[in-house]
Amino acid sequence: MCYFAASRSGDQGVPLNMKWPLIFIVLIFSFFANAAKEKPQEKPKGPLVFAETVKPAHIYDLLTYPARLVPKINATLLAETDGVVEKILTSLGTTVNRNQVIMRLNHTDPVYKYAPVLVRTPVGGVVSGVEVTEGSRVAQGAKLGTIIDPLKLKIQIEVAVSDMQDITRGLEGDLRIPGEDKPFPVKVIGRSPFADPATGTASAELSLTDTRKGAPKLPPGMVGTVSFRARDHVGVEVPEDAIVYRGQDAFLRVVEKGKAKYQQVALGQTRSGSVEILKGLNAGQSVIVRASSYVGNGEEVNSQAITPPPGEADKS
To answer: In whole angstroms, what is the distance from residue 245 CA to residue 242 CA?
Structure first.
């Protein structure tokens, strides 16, 4: 048995239990009709690649050596004759002047009595070492003490034979000391022309170039590291991952007009994950570094630029 609802607006007696299903069907039909009108999204053509634009930059080798700070003036006091130390007139850390008496020695001859021998400083500075005590018997030529000037320093390094042609007089570098935030500028003032056969290194001497008033003073005896920029020149580098090898030949995949092109290159030295390109690549070209899948020669690609890390783009 069916029941009909009374019509108040011209309804011709649609059954109540069929009215709502009809409305639901109409809404579903409208939804799919509108969805059919929307255009499907176009899929990107070709594999997704990440490319980097090649820019010329300063390329250099960073040479680093252990360094030791030593005083320029390091005078050794020697006994001029045999005798006994009668009196020591100075102590460690005492500032002395040139030709100042700091010790007295007595002769040990049992027959003749000699005047005491006065030990004088050959240079002015600070007493950095006393090797004897009062009453010590010393022989001629024995070491009595040392005098240094802590305000005048030099820096000593040992240079490898392979780097001797790069470490030349006037080359500037940076000295880093543990505990100091900023490096100290230094300059090469001399290098031995010969290498020690036992160590395979040549000694080099450096000096601090920051002579401004109020510049920090470094005490002698400290150790650190000295770095130099050697073989500095302008060239182009690419990440090591961008190189593609075919046998013994090296190639780069460059993007030209939306397509990948294999371009043969000549490789230089590898530095910190980057390879210098000596031949076959020009500045301004876009090089593929990574790809979502295999990229063939001449294949159309969807290229995205690689954003360099903060501060990396300003390097030169």
So the answer is: 10
Of 299, 303, 241, 49, nearest to 252 (Cα)? Answer: 241
**Sheet architecture: strand order including 101-106:** 117-120, 101-106, 83-88, 137-138
* Contact in structure between 187 and 171 (CB atoms under 8 Å): yes
- Collapse the DSSP code of 22 into the 3-class scheme (helix H, G, I; strand E, B; otherwise coil) and give the result: helix
| Cβ atoms 224, 67 nearer than 8 A | yes
Contact between 241 and 306 (Cβ < 8 Å): no
- Whether 260 contacts 288, CB under 8 Å: yes
Q: What is the DSSP letter of 198?
A: T
Q: Are strands 184-191 and 101-106 parallel, antiparallel or unpaired?
A: unpaired
Letter for the amino acid at 265? V
Please give the single-letter amino acid code of residue 23: I
Average pLDDT for runs of 10 along the chain of length 316? 43 54 63 56 72 90 93 91 92 92 88 86 92 92 92 91 91 91 92 91 91 71 92 91 91 92 92 90 90 88 74 48
pTM as predicted: 0.65
DSSP 218: P
Contacts of 148 (CB under 8 A, 6+ apart): 71, 73, 74, 75, 125, 126, 128, 220
Cα dist from 178 to 63, 103, 114, 217, 224, whole Å = 18, 38, 53, 14, 7
pLDDT value of position 13 = 53
Closest to 89 measured CA to CA, from 35, 34, 134, 152: 134
